[in-house]
């Protein structure tokens, strides 16, 4: 196979919030077929499973085993619910899926994918600060830690083309449509800071099922909410975003 030229375009398919359950055998067959036909790379932005059970990870691994393109994923909050996150990753790794958590994947030596789960904490002037009770400080520290992990992942990418995947939202624009009371729990602008510092072609996230599809960081980097329930409302026949990078 010839090496891809550094300036060649890479077709990236992105989705999140598959919420795969034990009874979902065959549910993603059409999805996989469409990705195989249209994309060079698939990225999945968390909540891959519904209850965080290893058995759900095994079902999803079976569905993704039919992919003919590389697949890169991060986990979401649902994937941690059952206490089997490592087992879910093991099932996915078994079929060639690359699980990111503060590291990166290099596609064909031309495109770097940096990935973290991310966390909550609010946006802009309403970002929660580490003040007061220890539990509040621990909550804020989790968001800071995820931001630092993303910074480290982006710093190690040595190619010009980069995309970022996460579960939680890095900008408030893509969660509009959700109940305003839960905005602080859907993401944090702390996650956008390393993206703007290191640059990226775009950011993909999930989590906000009832949110909006597009936003931008302060530096103008496109952010896409690719939660599958949202993508299905936008286009019932294709439940992923396709971007050429």
Order of helices and strands: EHEHEHHEEEHEHEEEHE
Looking at the structure, the CATH topology is: Purple Acid Phosphatase, chain A, domain 2
| CATH H-level superfamily title | Metallo-dependent phosphatases
| Helix residue percentage | 25-40%
What is the end-to-end distance? 21 Å
Strand order of the largest sheet: 5-6-7-8-10-9
Kindly state the mean pLDDT as a whole number? 96
Structural class: alpha/beta
The helix count comes to: 7
The unreliable regions are none
For the record, the count of structural domains works out to: 1
Fold topology:
Blueprint: E1 11-15, H1 29-38, E2 41-45, H2 54-64, E3 71-74, H3 77-81, H4 85-94, E4 98-99, E5 103-107, E6 111-115, H5 134-155, E7 161-165, H6 192-198, E8 202-205, E9 214-216, E10 222-225, H7 228-234, E11 241-244
Parallel strand pairs: 1-2, 2-3, 3-4, 6-7, 7-8, 8-10
Antiparallel strand pairs: 1-11, 5-6, 9-10
Please characterize this protein's 3D structure.
The chain has helices at 29-38, 54-64, 77-81, 85-94, 134-155, 192-198, 228-234; strands spanning 11-15, 41-45, 71-74, 98-99, 103-107, 111-115, 161-165, 202-205, 214-216, 222-225, 241-244. With 245 residues, it is α/β, with parallel strands linked by helices. It has one domain: Purple Acid Phosphatase, chain A, domain 2, CATH 3.60.21. The strands form two sheets. A six-stranded mixed sheet has the order 5-6-7-8-10-9. Strands 4-3-2-1-11 form a five-stranded mixed sheet, covered by helices on one side. Helix 5 (134-155) runs parallel beside helix 6 (192-198). The model has no long low-confidence stretch (mean pLDDT 96).
